[in-house]
Write a structure and sequence with these properties.
8 strands; 45% helix; globular; 10 helices; 8-stranded mixed β-sheet; alpha/beta
Length: 255
């Protein structure tokens, strides 16, 4: 089972390397973990560090493209590029702080698949963010099967250019009853873990907040029906195939 971690980073090479080090230190099988980092072509400070970073952390690939107003276009592009059986989005100001996190989440996946064998589900991971909104049931960093991403046609909801996609994505899977919450490992969301750190906004954080306020849509009420319907269609087709296979096996045993 291979895990892909995808994220965007901008002018935060120090924070990014701390994240990569935490992944390296706490993974039982780093050969089955890949990290894709999306960066902007105008981010010269990060571009100058690509060779060194990828040499230190060979499980990481840094991908540059023209800066996007909607960050989730870039995230979904990285999801399509990734090769893992399961994909998790993250931020560059995160640290994985649980030793053996990859073994733990793989064991959790096997348990979830006993309930949802079609592989259509969303695992809500645990993190230290203090600034979630609404019912706070959504995950800042969801863990989703590639099967579900392909069936739904998207990884993160692209309706919102910045904040809000995590809520909308959770709503999709909550609507079809396919959310599983896990405590098996923890992510320290450094810059969102205390009021003091939240107040210390760098340029990257300030730009993200500006994009959020420039998008007046309500992420609790946005239209998610397209993805929901595609996922339901996949689930129904899977169940029909399973029933047909069972019936065929019964008929074969009677011959």
């Amino acid at each position: 089972m291979k895990i892909s971690i995808i994220l965007l980073s901008r002018k935060r090479i120090g924070l990014l390397r701390d994240l990569l080090q935490s992944i390296s230190d706490n993974s039982d099988d780093i050969s089955n973990v890949e990290v894709l980092v999306g960066l902007d072509l105008d981010d010269q400070s990060s571009m100058s560090e690509v060779a060194v970073t990828e040499n230190i952390y060979p499980f990481c690939q840094m991908v540059f493209r023209t800066r996007q107003f909607n960050m989730h276009h870039h995230i979904n592009s990285l999801a399509r590029m990734s090769t893992g059986d399961y994909v998790m989005v993250m931020n560059d100001d995160c640290r994985i702080i649980t030793p053996g996190w990859d073994s733990r989440i793989k064991a959790e996946v096997l348990l979830v698949k006993e309930k949802w064998a079609d592989d259509i589900f969303y695992i809500a991971t645990k993190d230290s963010s203090i600034d979630k909104v609404g019912n706070c049931e959504y995950a800042s960093f969801p863990f989703i099967s590639r099967t579900a991403i392909l069936a739904g046609g998207v990884f993160m909801d692209q309706t919102f250019p910045c904040h809000g996609a995590d809520v909308a994505t959770w709503r999709i899977y909550n609507t079809i009853g396919r959310v599983h919450k896990t405590q098996c490992f923890e992510i320290d969301h450094i810059l969102h873990s205390s009021p003091e750190l939240l107040a210390q906004k760098d340029e990257t954080a300030g730009t993200m907040i500006g994009k959020t306020f420039a998008s007046p849509m309500n992420f609790w009420e946005s239209d998610i029906s397209g993805v929901v319907n595609r996922l339901r269609d996949y689930i129904n087709d899977y169940e029909e195939k399973e029933v047909n296979a069972e019936m065929a096996a019964i008929y074969e045993s009677l011959e």
